[in-house]
């Protein structure tokens, strides 16, 4: 069978089949041409010039295609030279900047949409792609974790794998209402601790807390609870700048401090009131830390615990003047500092992880 007869036998098949959509400048040219080529291939048409001739017929007349355009590269160049391509690319870039990851959306759908927008916006730089992925996240914590993980990665496939892995793993590291944690002081390496309830004076509901030990034991386990006067849902993540309570698991008493600026003592209390409420704040070296309320508290985050009533942060250090009188190894815990210094720094570990 001659080529002429072969081609004439193929063309009617196109006529009776639903055609690809017309190109009007709102589609990605390369993706659209790929669909055209696939359509033609289904009908046995492989010749480049013949495919281009058919594709030209599917282009909106407002888009100029030079005469004698017969190759894929020349055809794509003509589509991209038209102003509609610039508008489409800028729109894709705008949508890429607005794109936000939503845990309710399948990861595969999010990545597919991200890749499509990158291609349409002509974003090919790996560093730009990393930046847009980081910008899609609402949580500062996970963004910082990923930024560090992305830094040495030089292949985009690995960027996606790292992104997916951290997104799936991160919720396991979030601290939530009901979490059992230990609180480690960054400077001394010791843990916030409390033994049996021993009243500071007979009949008192208050008992001393301290820092002790380089390895956490049962006396160092605290439960993150709702603050006094509120009822948080168990399992909800704790956001920075929110208010929590801390209940000592073994004694069932609550971390508290006096509602007076003159008193800087920190105790546990068998009762619970507003003196048992604490702000969880992200530690920073500048006073603007009070405004940094994005993100969820997670394992290893450097924090301060600020007493809600008198606005002073939890503090300890290893100087002899802060040694508890009941034990040569216990470091006294009190309220002191401005929240910016090293001795106000703590971080949490979830018990059992």
UniProtKB/TrEMBL annotation:
InterPro entries: MIR_dom_sf, MIR_motif. SUPFAM superfamilies: MIR domain (SSF82109). Coiled coil: none annotated. This is Stromal cell-derived factor 2-like protein.
């Amino acid at each position: 069978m001659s080529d002429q007869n072969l081609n004439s036998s193929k063309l009617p098949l196109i006529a009776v089949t639903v055609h690809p959509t017309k190109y009007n400048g709102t589609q990605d040219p390369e993706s659209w041409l790929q669909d055209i080529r696939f359509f033609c291939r289904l009908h046995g048409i492989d010749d480049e010039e013949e495919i281009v001739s058919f594709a030209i017929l599917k282009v909106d007349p407002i888009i100029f295609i030079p005469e004698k355009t017969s190759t894929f590269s020349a055809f794509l160049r003509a589509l991209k030279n038209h102003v509609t391509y610039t508008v489409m690319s800028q729109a894709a870039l705008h949508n890429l900047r607005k794109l936000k990851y939503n845990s309710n959306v399948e990861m595969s759908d999010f990545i597919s949409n991200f890749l499509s927008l990158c291609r349409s916006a002509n974003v090919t730089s790996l560093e730009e792609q990393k930046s847009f992925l980081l910008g899609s996240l609402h949580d500062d914590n996970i963004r910082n974790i990923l930024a560090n993980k992305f830094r040495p990665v030089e292949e985009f496939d690995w960027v996606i794998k790292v992104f997916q892995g951290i997104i799936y793993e991160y919720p396991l590291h979030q601290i939530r209402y009901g979490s059992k944690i230990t609180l480690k002081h960054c400077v001394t390496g010791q843990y916030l601790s409390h033994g049996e309830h021993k009243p500071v004076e007979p009949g008192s509901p208050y008992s001393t807390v301290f820092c002790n030990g380089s390895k956490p034991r049962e006396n160092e386990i605290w439960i993150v609870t709702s603050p006094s006067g509120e009822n948080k849902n168990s399992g909800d993540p704790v956001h920075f700048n929110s208010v929590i309570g801390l209940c000592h698991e073994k004694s069932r008493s609550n971390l508290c401090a006096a509602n007076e600026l003159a008193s800087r003592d920190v105790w546990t209390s068998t009762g619970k009131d507003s003196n048992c409420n604490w702000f969880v704040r992200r530690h920073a070296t500048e006073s603007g830390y009070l405004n940094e309320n994005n993100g969820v508290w997670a394992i290893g985050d450097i924090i301060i615990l600020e007493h809600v009533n008198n606005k002073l942060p939890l503090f300890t250090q290893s100087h002899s003047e802060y040694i508890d009188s009941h034990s040569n190894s216990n470091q006294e815990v009190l309220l002191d500092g401005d929240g910016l210094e090293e001795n106000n720094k703590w971080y949490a570990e979830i018990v059992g992880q």
